[in-house]
Design goal:
Pfam families: 2OG-FeII_Oxy (PF03171), DIOX_N (PF14226). Helices cover about 35% and strands about 25% of the residues. With about 325 residues, it is α+β, with helices and mostly antiparallel strands. The structure holds 2-oxoglutaric acid and fe (ii) ion (FE2).
């Protein structure tokens, strides 16, 4: 087992308008599909029709413009959670990736503040498109979260969870490796999020690790999103869902752009009592997710699930 990469065998769940009405039988069966996919694969693709494809195409053009800004402008994006969202560029360990993003997207000023930092005389087209994109992807995240809570029979706790939930959005530019470079990309890792929702332009290079240890190249159908479980979902679900181990491997050719919505919680996360029983004894203590983010930055040597287990495992 190991590094061989397989074709896409990830479930694709159709979030058609008729599947998104809570209480209907198609909503309930979609919730079950989400839970089954997470427990089996830790991730799944969503075919989502609500975001116009013109908006998605326009966002990827805007990202090209953003990353074409001078480095001295991009480095100004310093945030509270820098390892995740502050500007990272051309590190010797990952020379092919540049990334940066917007934190606290629930804040109505967040997109404008970021835009004005990057373009001191403003950029209406970026801020308007990004505001709309961010709202659409945040709505999608809320649906996914509600489905997860419902699928575990704890829908009553969803609204209080949602009141303290927040998101960051990160933009990634992966350039192809040069002749003298190793295959570039991002080393394998799990995200410290509750869920991460990824969209990309059509350049395949993201891979996720399957249960049998092989790597699966993720082929995104047009306008689709990949939902990956983060370490916080692993803990909340009391170990039922594993966090997705993923990596990016670029090959010579085109540049890849991606967006990643990171969802997190501002308060304490605890395993719902409904998810603890004799067959599933409590595995995780209540924990503060922002504290967990800080913990991961100062404990780089820990990988995969060992991070969350070291932070709040019983
Ligand atoms: O670019 C991607 O698809 C994923 C990058 C990644 O792993 C991350 O932003 O955490
Ligand atoms: Fe990641």
């Amino acid at each position: 087992m190991g590094s061989e990469t397989k074709a896409n065998i990830l479930p694709i769940i159709h979030f058609a308008v008729e599947n998104l009405k809570p209480g209907t039988s198609s909503w309930l069966s979609t919730c079950k599909n989400v839970r089954d996919a997470l427990e089996e694969h830790s991730c799944f693709l969503i075919q989502y029709e609500k975001i116009p494809s013109e908006l998605i195409n326009a966002i990827f053009l805007q990202l090209e413009e953003l990353f074409n800004l001078p480095t001295e402008t991009k480095v100004q994006n310093i945030t509270k959670t820098d390892g995740l969202i502050g500007y990272v560029g051309k590190r010797p360990s990952n020379p092919t990736i540049e990334s940066m993003g917007i934190e606290d997207v629930i804040n109505p000023e967040a997109v404008l503040k970021f835009t004005n930092l990057m373009w001191s005389s403003g950029n209406d087209s970026f801020s308007e498109l990004m505001e709309s994109y961010k709202n659409h992807v945040s709505d999608l995240e809320k649906v996914v979260m509600r489905m997860i809570f419902e699928s575990y029979g704890v829908e009553k706790s969803y609204s209080s969870y949602n009141e303290s939930s927040n998101r960051m959005i990160r933009f990634n530019k992966h350039r192809p490796p040069q002749l003298n470079e190793n295959i570039g990309g991002v080393h394998e890792h799990t995200d410290p999020t509750f869920v991460t929702i990824i969209q990309q332009n059509q350049v395949t290079s993201l891979e996720v690790k399957s249960k049998d240890g092989s790597w699966i190249a993720v082929h995104f159908p047009p306008s689709s999103f990949l939902v990956m479980a983060g370490d916080a979902l692993l803990a909340w679900s009391n170990g039922r869902v594993h966090s997705t181990l993923h990596r990016v491997r670029m090959s010579p050719g085109e540049t890849r752009f991606s967006t990643a919505l990171f969802s997190y919680h501002n308060g304490t996360i605890q395993v719902p009592k409904e998810l603890v029983d004799d067959d599933h004894p409590l595995q995780f203590k209540p924990f503060d997710q922002l504290g967990f983010f800080r913990f991961t930055f100062s404990n780089f040597s820990l990988n995969d699930e060992s991070k969350i287990r070291a932070y709040c495992g019983v």
